[in-house]
Amino acid sequence: MVNQYYANADINGKIIGFYNDDVHTEEQIPETAIEITEEQWQDALSNPRKYRVISGVFTARTQAEIDQEIEDEEANAPPVPPTAEQEIASLKAENAALVTETVRLAARDAQIQDDQMFILEALIAAEII
After folding, report:
1. Where are the beta strands (DSSP E) in 11-124?
2. Residue by residue, what is the 3-state secondary structure of 11-35?
């Protein structure tokens, strides 16, 4: 008996699994899986982006289609999270900015206190208070 290979695809036709009746039972092979040849199976394993199931047919795609898919995936990929070193550098820069702002506010507060003291002394000298 010749082994029969199957490919199963998602709703977009992207291959999501392969099955072989020598390994999988009939119950394990999805009803949506389609029969493919051993050669197609081997080629699909070597070239995972090459095939799609289109209208129930195991179809080889052009290189232009594959390239467009890769380009679309890269364009829609989430940003790469920063490395630990980048995160540390960012936090150090944020910390430095906060220290600078704290010093600026402390200097401003000191000036306000000096101004208030000057006004208070002037009011006392003028016997207003």
Report:
1. 15-20, 34-36, 51-54, 57-60
2. CCCEEEEEEECCCCCCCCCCCCCEE
Report the candidate in 68, 57, 51 with the shortest Cα–Cα distance to residue 16.
Answer: 51
Same domain, 113 and 52: no
Convert the pLDDT of each residue in 66-111 to its tens digit. Answer: 999 999 999 999 999 999 999 999 999 999 999 999 999 999 999 9
Q: Whole-structure pTM over 0.90, yes or no? A: no
Q: What is the pLDDT of residues 4-21, one digit of tens each?
A: 999 999 999 999 999 999
Q: Rounded CA gap, 55 and 25, in Å?
A: 25
Q: What is the domain range of residue 9?
A: 5-76
